Amino acid sequence: MRGYDVRLYSFNDFKYICYVEGKNSAVETIFSDIFQTKKLKAFQRRIKKNEMDLKSIYDEYLQHQSIVNN
């Protein structure tokens, strides 16, 4: 346990962060707690290459968040 709880963002939170910060910055902000820098950069390249939509990115977030919490 890290001594603090990692906040689980809702899809609406995620959409709002993407709207305010832009898609790349939002992904970096939200996934920085889950991924190391090297994996985060690779994930961002995969998003650009596959032109992933917000729902797909959010589903990926939930999947990795459940792995971190278990």
UniProtKB/TrEMBL annotation:
This is Uncharacterized protein.
